[in-house]
Amino acid sequence: MDFADRVERVEPSATLAISDLASQLEAEGADVVDLSVGEPDFPTPENIVEAAKDAMDAGHTGYAPSNGVPELKDAIAEKLHDDGLDQYSSENVIVTPGAKMALYETVQALIEDGEEVVLLDPAWVSYEAMVKMAGGSLTRVDTSEYDFALEPALDDLAEAVSDETELMVVNSPGNPTGAVYSDAALEGVRDLAVEHDFTVISDEIYKEITYGVEQTSLGTLEGMEDRTVTINGFSKAYSMTGWRLGYVAAPEELIGQAGKLHSHSVSSAVNFVQHAGIEALENTDEAVEEMVEAFAERREFLVDLLAERNVDVAEPDGAFYMMVPVDDNDQAWCEGAIEDAHVATVPGSAFGTPGYARISYANSKERIEEAVERLDAEGYL
Ligand code: PLP
């Protein structure tokens, strides 16, 4: 078979080698502590599960309107208003099967051959693949020397962007760093976006998961109202990864174009899942708070365990990940850690930043402690 360039230029996920090794070891009977996963370890809150069952019983099992069930789009618009994003009404929303599809549709709608997209490294793995599939070219700005903060990296960003820049992706709180960008950093992005007239995707999938700080939504900044594409979803805040529910909010012209891709590919997000999404947005604040509190405790716990072993990390203010400095050859470190200590992590090079391993602390304190003790005993810390 002769394959299209758009798929041949994308590599399979660099995390695959690690999860394959983990599965192989588990099949052989090993007890693997998996700190490589990007999902909360809590069940979906019961009221959301009940709402899905009720929606099925009520017959919401047929096709849904392509851009989303109207009540859910209204609830999303209300949530966005609560975040200060007054420019969006339900007409500015497409409900998608996961935030990933929202990002994919946005990149497909905006980027064509040779157009420049700027990423801040370390960056979530799929941005690169999405840009490559669209034929875009990547410019990457490394934030690792600034402990993953954006404000001190603004000069580097200013050098990297130009009138050729079409799109930039900002992900805060970020995967894999957990960094929360300051208002001053976002204002710096805004100034550059306005000066060079580019669009910015603000991936806010971890916005609800922060520790003692709040993440300003980029689209609330003056000058960004019509050049921000806001992405969010239900996977992380509501522990709904498998339900596949997310959304894009954007100026109406973009919704029109992305909506064509959406209707000709997925048709819509699952009907009864969208009904459960309404319940998530309207009646789940307490459960979200409890999960965030648990993440906060584990974060402190992990930072302390590492500090006791003289491993300093840039303490994250959001999400549930931490970048731990390891050997230059981070791929070898991660493979060794899983083979010798049976602890699965993700190499920083998968995110464009070698020399680190990403640890997800969406796991119990006991398992986190077990992992750190094993890594220490095997000489990995
Ligand atoms: N954006 C970031 C930064 C993520 O980490 C993820 C999931 O890992 C997504 C988007 C996609 O989330 P989903 O498609 O599950 O809504």
Automatic annotation (TrEMBL):
Provide the cofactor list for this protein. pyridoxal 5'-phosphate
| Keywords noted in UniProt | Aminotransferase, Pyridoxal phosphate, Transferase
The EC designation for this entry is 2.6.1.-
Give a GO molecular function annotation for the protein: pyridoxal phosphate binding
Entry keyword Lyase = no
Q: Where is the Aminotransferase class I/classII large domain?
A: 31-375
Domain of life, per UniProt, equals Archaea
EC top class named in words: transferase
Q: Which GO terms describe its biological process?
A: amino acid metabolic process
**Parts of the chain that traverse the membrane:** none
Protein family (similarity comment): Belongs to the class-I pyridoxal-phosphate-dependent aminotransferase family.
Tell me the subunit arrangement. Answer: Homodimer.
Q: What is this protein called?
A: Aminotransferase
Organism the protein comes from: Natranaeroarchaeum aerophilus
